[in-house]
Fold this sequence. Notes:
Elements: H1 16-24, E1 31-32, H2 49-59, H3 73-84, H4 89-92, E2 96-101, H5 103-118, E3 124-128, H6 133-140, E4 145-149, E5 151-152, E6 157-158, H7 160-169, E7 175-179, H8 192-204, E8 208-213, H9 223-226, H10 228-235, E9 241-245, E10 258-263, H11 267-281, H12 291-300, H13 303-312, E11 318-320, H14 325-335, E12 337-338, E13 344-346, H15 355-366
Helix pairs in contact: 2-12, 2-13, 3-12, 5-6, 5-11, 7-8, 8-10, 14-15
4'-deoxy-4'-aminopyridoxal-5'-phosphate binds near residues 103, 105 and 212.
Subunit structure: Homodimer.
GO biological process, one term: amino acid metabolic process
Protein name: Aspartate aminotransferase
Amino acid sequence: SSWWRSVQPAPKDPILGVTEAFLADQSPDKVNVGVGAYRDDNGKPVVLECVREAERRIAGNLNMEYLPMGGSVKMVEETLKLAYGENSELIKEKRIAAVQALSGTGACRLFADFQKHFCPDSQIYIPVPTWANHHNIWRDAQVPQKTYHYYHPESKGLDFAAMIDDIKNAPNGSFFLLHACAHNPTGVDPSEEQWREISHHIKAKGHFAFFDMAYQGFASGDPEKDAKAIRIFLEDGHHIGIAQSYAKNMGLYGQRVGCLSVLCEDEKQAVAVKSQLQQLARPMYSNPPVHGALIVSTILSDPDLKKQWLKEVKIGMFCYSGLTPEQVDRLTNEFHIYMTRNGRISMAGVTTGNVKYLANAIHEVTK
Ligand code: PMP
């Protein structure tokens, strides 16, 4: 219609666009190591056994009622234990404002909106590189973005000194976005000692640390170990925020189940903050979806199912290969191999059947 004449097609998403191109490719040899979703050895989607069992248990007594604006209380309770610790005093003191969110993306977006609303003059410091959607999220929430050093291409490790400098040079009371573990796309995380130093400097400057924890369990294979950075910040007395997601570590991608939490000074503040988070959610999506939340709470509140989940959480997902954008283009054009142009390989897409083909192709474009 005449109303939308000025609308131009949006640029393709750099990650989801890879899958589109892969699906359009007719070659029998094609390989997709782009998107971060688990696949079995035949390249088929994987559903965890604990999830299948939870679904069986749920099936008989499922209804379709709305969840409250803040989502499933039981799911949120279990989710907070994973991040803050099973016996966290902060949970007992009710100091954490937390709501179910539309997976990790929704949790980040809700926080960005909250930040804009209540700290309207603040900015967010984002690592270089980061998950590309972080930029979109804080942009759409109208929070200005700055970056901080993170990856060091020469050593293929952390640019720790530059990162600390950026923390020190940021204006006091800035917001810092940190990947809690299994940094996407590099797979490079600070060591425990480095986290302690990062925590120290962020505290000294009065910055706010916001953790995006999309891969709890994927760095070490143990969700408890992967919460180490968060626990260090808690020990040091930070008032942090956390975005949690079950997309990866429970394989619940399309269920959109996650959690946003904000640690407050006391229970009274937490009640106020939670009410404002719900107020932000109400005109956007009113309340979050019920099914995925029920799967999560069923698994985590049952000791046997939880034990099974801990066994099923696999290790690792992304490998920052060091391939250049031109080499990636050659892999795609000549070998029908799809990945993001930053050279990130999703190890979940590598199978017994394609590993040789993939390795040969990588060798061809890098020799
Ligand atoms: N943060 C990071 C760093 C991610 O890599 C992802 C998943 N790609 C997310 C958040 C959010 O994913 P989801 O919304 O599916 O939970």
